[in-house]
Each structure stands twice: as C-alpha cells, then as structure tokens.
Amino acid sequence: MKVILVRHGETDWNLEGRLMGQKDVLLNDKGREQAELLRIKLANIEFDCCYSSPLSRAKETARIICKNKCNIIYDDNLKERSGGELEGTIINHWNDYNNNNTIEADGEILNRARRFLEMLKNTSYQKVLIVSHNGLLKNLRHCILEKPGKPNYDSKNLPNCDYEIYKI
Predict the structure, then answer these.
(1) pLDDT (0 to 100) of residue 12
(2) Collapsing DSSP states into helix, strand and coil, what is residue 29?
(3) Mean pLDDT over residues 102-120, rounded?
(4) At 52, phi and psi to the nearest 5?
C-alpha cells in the first residue's frame, strides 16, 4: 500500500508561531492556495480513500485536495498532539513544551499513530491520502519506518501542505 502523508495548509497561528495542538484553527488564504496547488500537483494520483484529522485546518485541506475525487474519512487518531494549557501560546523552546504536564504524553500520540496504521493495514486500499498535523505525522513516519523508541520531535518538520510518500 502506498500512503501519501500531507500536512495541513498554513494558518495564522503557524505564522505567529503559536502552538495549535487540538485547537480548531482555520486555514488562512495562503493555506487554501497551498492546498489548491497540492491538488493540482497530485491530480494524476487516484486515491482509494482519504483519511483526515477532524480538525478544521486538516478537513479543509483534505476537501480541497480531494475535490470529490474520493471519500474522506475523519479519524480522531489523526488529530494533532494535545498541547494542553500551552495551546495558543508562542513556544520558543521545545523543552518548554516537553516539560509541561498538561500536554499529551509521547506514548499516547505514538499509540494513536500505531492504532491508525494497524487499522489501515487491515483495509484493501492501495493508495491512501492522509491529511494531518506535524506532530502526528512525525509519529506516523516513525511507525512506518519501524524505528525503535519514541519519535524525535526535533526531526524534520513537514512544511505546510507538503507531502511524503511511503510504502507500507
């Protein structure tokens, strides 16, 4: 099965450096344009299905990219990592985030990624589009590549409305 991992388009909070977490922040105009450009870029790929986070920024990105091309299924496992009381604030250092006990634990988001992939492996799909968020996508990538331990959150960020293709 081929999976195309897509990070949602840009939001105003992305520009401001605010931690979104599971706050339901909307795409801005540039985010919509990014999604439209990605739709054109991926136009020749026929997806069996699209899975998306149910948060608005991912939902809208998925709707623009798919544009009646395939069904979109919203899955809570694809939500971004909860940032707890830090959501909406500007985070300057990753340690500030990791040292806050109101955020979703590393193991919880990793388990959500694993659950999602296990469910996906039990389908008959051949090409699947997955629209989600930076933190969750790092966990999915970690699971797909079967790396030991927990994901490195300092690893490569997928830019807004960019994608990676993996075979699982």
Answers:
(1) 98
(2) helix
(3) 94
(4) -140, 150
**Which segments of the chain does DSSP mark as H helices, in order?**
12-16, 29-41, 56-66, 94-98, 106-121, 134-144
Average pLDDT, the chain: 93
Residue-by-residue DSSP string for 56-98: HHHHHHHHHHHTTSS-EEE-GGGSPPP-GGGTTSBP--HHHHH
Listed by start position, the domains of the chain span: 2-167
Q: CA-based angle 117:74:100, to the nearest 5?
A: 75
Residue carrying structure tokens 């006990």: 101
Closest CA to 134 of 103, 165, 159, 168: 159
- Check whether domain 2-167 has CATH 3.40.50.1100, yes or no: no
- Catalytic positions: 8, 80
> Phi and psi dihedrals of 126, rounded to 5?
-105, -35
Q: Quick check: 150 pLDDT over 60?
A: yes
